[in-house]
Amino acid sequence: MMLKVNSFFVKAFRSSFFLDMKLDHKRKPNSSKPTKSSKSSKNSQRGYLLNLFLIGLLVGCVVMASLAFWAQSPVEHQNNKTSIDLDIEPGQSVRQIVAQSVHEGFLVNEELLYLLFKFSGVSREIKAGSYELGLQVSPWDFVQKLTRGDETLKSITFIEGWNFRQVRAALNKAPDIKHDTLGLSDEEIMSRLGVPNVPAEGHFFPDTYTFGHNSSDLKVLARAYKSMNKRLAQAWDQQEPNLKGIPDPESALILASIIEKETGQAKDREMISSVFHNRLAINMPLQTDPTVIYGLGEGFNGNLTKQDLKTDHSWNTYTRLGLPPTAICMPGKMALFAALHPAKSQALYFVAKGDGSSQFSDTLQAHNAAVDRYQRTPHDK
What we know:
Layout: H1 2-26, H2 36-71, E1 83-88, H3 94-103, H4 110-120, E2 129-134, H5 139-147, E3 153-157, H6 164-173, E4 177-178, H7 186-192, E5 208-212, E6 215-216, H8 217-237, H9 249-262, H10 269-281, H11 289-296, H12 306-310, H13 333-340, E7 349-352, E8 358-361, H14 364-374
Parallel strand pairs: 4-6
Antiparallel strand pairs: 1-2, 3-5, 7-8
């Protein structure tokens, strides 16, 4: 419709322009004295400019009306998807978000959607998180969803470092969600998600997920599972070359979960990863406390003893070589990156310094000195 209207105005403009040209061509040069003919010419020019202004104004109104209609019209989904999951990272630009939404299957004109964000004046108010785009979502609905948030939606946040038991507890406490997982074992939940042979631990991405009133908790878990798969695949594809001891993405996930639990300060992640990579390369036990604590389960009382470190079980990395059989928590994006991008070092040991950071050592002698300095009390010495 808009193209037909524009074509009509272009033809009208051309007709008016060439008619004036013919009239001017037929007019004979006259003296400098104003005549009726020159006055008529001026009036003709004024009329031409007025017509041009009115045509431009009308075209502008038609364009604005067309854009308003487009902004309020539901957008189709690629391959007839019933919903689209969109993960927005902190600091992402509007261009990146628009391109990502189209890539995920939101069939909208990228340039128009970008301009809608810009001219609406809310592009700086975009909130990071995980969004679900259902059917009947218009471009304007999309803008509002990412900026103000939909008041009819609720949200739940899964925290980096949580284990699956904590995820389930958070879902069970959520008042506006349908608790379809109540009474199900972890294995039954994974079967309901269509992945019966995948362990639940670590396979859900920590993020904020929005959902409609009385949505199933299984639907939220399905989105978190899909998000982790996507991010793990991205991290695996971008890994540092020639890594040893990490043969597949599942191993990377397990290592990332250990790094997540061991990291006190973000700057230490790659060095902690380096220690574990160096140990794996020489077949040295990882000897990491969080895996032992995970294996103790709900029976852990907060005090890890020497006897705990000696008691053998599948997650005791003091008594067993290599990685444990599953992840021990949900690793975040940076832990996934660190697992596949270790720092270049010869370090084999690290100890907490008491301020959240760690002291790294290449030798046992240096490590023992660091332990004496940062952890042993005068009584212990």
